[in-house]
User: Fold this.
Amino acid sequence: MMAGLLLARAGIEVLVLEKHRDFLRDFRGDTIHPSTLEVLHELGLLEEFLRLPHQKVRELRAQFGEVRLPVAEFAGLRLRSPFIAMIPQWDFLDFLARHARRFRGFGLQMQAEVEGLLFEQSRVAGIRVDGEEIYCNLVIGADGRHSTVRAQAGLEVIDLGAPIDALWFRVSRSADDPADTMARFDRGSILVMLNRGDYWQCAYVIAKGALESLRLRGLPAFRATLAALLPFAAKRMAEIASWDDVKLLTVQVNRLRRWYREGLLCIGDAAHAMSPVGGVGINLAIQDAVAAANLLWRGDFSLKCLRAVQRRREFPTRLTQRFQVLVQDRILSRVLAGAGGSLEVPLAVRMLARFPALRRIPARLVGVGVRPEHVASPAVAA
Ligand SMILES: Cc1cc2nc3c(=O)[nH]c(=O)nc-3n(C[C@H](O)[C@H](O)[C@H](O)COP(=O)(O)OP(=O)(O)OC[C@H]3O[C@@H](n4cnc5c(N)ncnc54)[C@H](O)[C@@H]3O)c2cc1C
Assistant:
């Protein structure tokens, strides 16, 4: 959607295809990072965007046993918007769609599932949607981590592996609960909690494939584990009425060796599925879109220009994934492998808690990322 908006704004005719009827989807990360807020500012949309109902996350905390410590602080970053805006993804996408429609060349077709690619010799020449053929100069595969486009294009996937999965659920929040967005670590368990106003969006991290054994132990045992981690909300665990209220995110970390071929470019999760560590998938997808528009708005979709998009975005992707894999393997797996009981606070976390300036490092990694992009494509088609 962001790539569509930017390209249409620069005068290119764009058709965005979305297989669902609307963008209303269960939770898929509602984090709009400071760098995305900066992009919205560059587009003159920030003020209006921040009028949508949202929560502001200004710092991140981690809890080890009963010790709760700050680990990332966005205030120190000297950004225009030093916070993560928590806003449902469908509100964000609807907002972008509404603004993209102001541009003459923009089209959005909902309930339009891309079934396959059309080829002219080795060049991708278009797509097949509901039995209809649509020809175009460039297909942008931004269809997520189960991308049909990338599979059909035969692009090679490098799998980096992930030892964890995440279970997402929500419980209500009462006014006297803590306000922080935080991660809680105890031997054998990791729980991330996002403050969404009147409820907590929670992720319980498990070892890969461990859901089945968890289910065998039964829902009451799962509720009891959560209640021990969240004593202030222990009674509310009854709100998890069945396993249907618990959604499994099968974590994947991978990227394409080549993000493009003639007539086709993949961006976002379709080019690189990110680990949930740090919650940065949306940020990277948006940054890819901005970089792609900066390099493609002139309408030159040659291999050289498509390669330039990958060159620009591959380094931030690789570095972020390397960091995520490190955290998955060195920290999360070890915590999950431990027996029950409190954990000692790791030295790195103690340092972050002690020296506020150090907290800018994780804040920058999460909130801004490596090589933030700025809108350089023009507005010619309002
Ligand atoms: C449970 C969960 C929690 C997450 N939490 C966070 C978080 O806290 N912070 C964060 O930054 N990231 C988070 N992520 C990751 C984040 O959602 C993704 O990284 C980000 O949405 C990627 O954007 P994208 O546009 O590349 O792909 P997507 O957001 O996946 O969008 C792809 C779109 O393409 C559509 N589509 C797919 N196939 C077709 C087709 N054949 N034809 C037409 N349309 C199609 C899909 O319906 C979808 O709307 C989370 C992901 C999940 C699953």
